UniProtKB/TrEMBL annotation:
Substrate binds at N182, P183, P184, Y185. InterPro entries: DNA_methylase_N6_adenine_CS, HemK-like, N5-glutamine_MTase, PrmC_N, RF_methyltr_PrmC, SAM-dependent_MTases_sf, Small_mtfrase_dom. PROSITE patterns: N6_MTASE (PS00092). GO terms for molecular function: nucleic acid binding; peptide chain release factor N(5)-glutamine methyltransferase activity. This is Release factor glutamine methyltransferase.
Length: 275
């Protein structure tokens, strides 16, 4: 049988800064161990069935499949979430949306909505940090709603619930103090859609028309009728879309409009308050 160290040495992933780390994650998952186990016991022999799984997963990664889909999980905020190919992979950039929401509103009881929830990442991070908030996440994809619900149950976050809805379609008469969303915002012609992880993620959760703003327009146009007076709308968008999104907020009658920068210095979220 091969040892841990020999399998890692032989892993022929494409050369990248994360290649060794990816191989370690895959081998640890195949063994059912924490990654630290690999460094503690590099000379340990790997059971044949575990080696077979590692080799198969390595082949998937070599073809470019995101490691989160291979492992079936991804960290976001302080949570570990189940992920699947019918949802986007939660990314660190989106944590800015969570941080901003937590800064804007108090910990008192209120109703919060997450549009296009996917894995439930945003909704569950908010529910985790604000136990008094009642967070609803909606998604048009039934499989995503089921996945987000499983994540909530596993994390024991009873203040987060999920339901199927195309944006606000199933929410008639509902009002919220806060609405957040990481909607599709990539232009249909963007070449990045044919590169890296995006090749494997659902295009319906990525692409929003020729300028990438179709869904953002729809959300902003409809949000006021679902916000309480002085309620906030927070949206993630592309690194170069902030001026256009702020203009849409202004057209929609919002006030206190601003954009906030991510760690890379790009304006990645915009927000506004309903008067």
């Amino acid at each position: 049988m091969a040892t841990i160290e020999s399998l890692l040495r032989a892993a022929d992933l494409p050369d990248s800064p994360s290649a060794r780390l990816d191989a370690e994650w895959l081998l640890a998952a195949a063994l059912g161990k924490a990654a630290s186990y690999l460094h503690t016991w590099p000379e340990r022999e790997v059971p044949v069935e575990c080696e077979a799984r590692f080799v198969a997963d390595l082949a998937r990664r070599r073809r470019g499949e995101p490691i989160a889909y291979i492992l079936g999980r991804q960290g976001f905020w302080s949570l570990e979430l189940e992920v699947a190919p019918h949802t986007l992979i939660p990314r660190p950039d989106t944590e800015l949306l969570v941080e901003t929401a937590l800064q804007l509103l108090p910990a008192a009881a209120m109703n919060v909505l997450d549009l296009g929830t996917g894995t439930g990442a945003i909704a569950l991070a908010l529910a985790h940090e604000r136990p008094a908030w009642r967070v609803t996440g909606v998604d048009r994809v039934a499989q995503a709603v089921a996945l987000a619900t499983r994540n909530a149950q596993r994390l024991r976050l009873d203040n987060a619930v999920f339901c199927e809805s195309q944006w606000f379609a199933a929410l008639e008469g509902q009002r919220y103090a806060l609405i957040v969303s990481n909607p599709p915002y990539i232009r249909a012609c963007d070449p990045h859609l044919r590169q890296g992880d995006l090749r494997f993620e659902p295009s319906s959760a990525l692409v929003a028309g020729e300028d990438g703003l179709d869904d953002i327009r729809q959300i902003i146009a409809s949000a006021s009728s679902h916000l309480l007076p002085e309620g906030w709308l927070l949206l993630e968008h592309g690194y170069d879309q902030a001026p256009a999104v702020r203009a849409l907020f202004a057209e929609g009658g919002f006030c206190e409009i601003e954009s906030r920068k991510d760690f890379g210095g790009h304006e990645r979220i915009s927000l506004g308050r309903r008067p």
